Amino acid sequence: MTLPTYADVLAAAARIAPHAHVTPVLRSRTLDAMVGAELHFKCEHLQRIGAFKFRGACNAVWALSDVEAARGVVTHSSGNHGGALALAAKTRGIACHVVAPDNTIASKLAAIEAYGATLHLCAPGLAAREARCTEVQHATGAVLVHPYTDPMVIAGQGTAAMELLNHCGTHAYHPLDALIVPVGGGGLASGTALAAAALAPACRVFAAEPAVGADTFASLQRGERISGSQPDTICDGLRGTLGAPNFTLLRTHGVEVLTVDDAETIAAMRLLWTRTKQLVEPSSATVLAALLKHRERFAGQRIGVILSGGNVDLDALPQLFAKEPA
């Protein structure tokens, strides 16, 4: 597979401009003080479908030729990418098929269908998702848009960091010292690395990962991609296995992974809600959890923080927060 470049990120920005939101960047003096750094929160939970995933899906759909688009698109997803691809397909007026585990959050499944996609349920686990997706692809002739290894998806995800860096300053103009994003399959993290390398070469890129499924951390430590883990984490959006092109990009650009446990993530999720009034999903809260856990790494610096999504299971929220003290 051809790896995307920053030129692809620039092309993606132009391609998705008629469809995607330029999301706001928020500040919090309280959270700055708690971390000991200047934090700039890129609010991708306010993106269309409630997650950054719309950027990559939209870019992939609109990059298709007319002949390809006529076949429709298919993917597998734990929720956000499925909803993103469904909406992106709707903007182009083409068919969309989404394979999702039967234990996916109900609100995410409802969103996929509400955007007009045909939903195909499967057993939990990446192997089951991929097998069912292949079946649907063969039956329909649809074009596969992989949730995180597709080059056009990676390039589209990189536009969030590009916007954040342009907002905060690049190169010699007071650039950010670091960027931090969640990591699961690696689409957002690798797209972010591409944007940072081009716009602010001195800006370090970090990725926050659940400790119970830290395959990205282990892969970068060992220098070879580790796959096949099925983490039991509340971060449903980060249960994907690190993709091969994503591993290459993260390793090439020196991305460092910081792990957090679910309790730390829930506490950070609560903090974001109480201090900024922003309700984000657990996957998204990992970034603040990592900053709080590693304050010494970021003291006195300007940090870009991508809040990846806000599709929270509201029915489970009281029970989730009840697990952790305020």
Describe this structure in words.
This protein is an alpha/beta fold. It folds into two domains: 6-51 and 151-322, 3-Layer(aba) Sandwich (Rossmann fold), CATH 3.40.50.1100; 54-144, 3-Layer(aba) Sandwich (Rossmann fold), CATH 3.40.50.1100. The protein has 15 helices and ten strands. The strands form two sheets. It has a six-stranded mixed sheet with strand order 1-2-10-7-8-9, with helices on both faces. Strands 5-4-3-6 form a four-stranded parallel sheet, sandwiched between helices. Helix 5 (80-92) links the parallel strand 3 (73-76) and strand 4. Helix 1 packs across helix 3 (53-63). The longest helix is centred in the middle third of the chain and has 18 residues, at 151-168. It is globular and about 55 Å long. The model has no long low-confidence stretch (mean pLDDT 94).
CATH C-level class of the largest domain is Alpha Beta
Mean pLDDT: 94
Major β-sheet profile: 6 strands, mixed
Strand order of the largest sheet: 1-2-10-7-8-9
Could you say which overall geometry the principal axes of the C-alpha atoms support? globular
User: Count of DSSP helices?
Assistant: 15
In what range is the share of β-strand residues?
5-15%
- End-to-end distance, in Å? 46 Å
Task: Count up the domains.
Answer: 2
Q: What Rg do the Cα atoms give?
A: 18 Å
Structural class: alpha/beta
Secondary structure: number of strands: 10
State the CATH architecture of the largest domain: 3-Layer(aba) Sandwich
Low-confidence stretches: none
Q: And the CATH topology of the largest domain?
A: Rossmann fold
Relative helix content = 40-55%
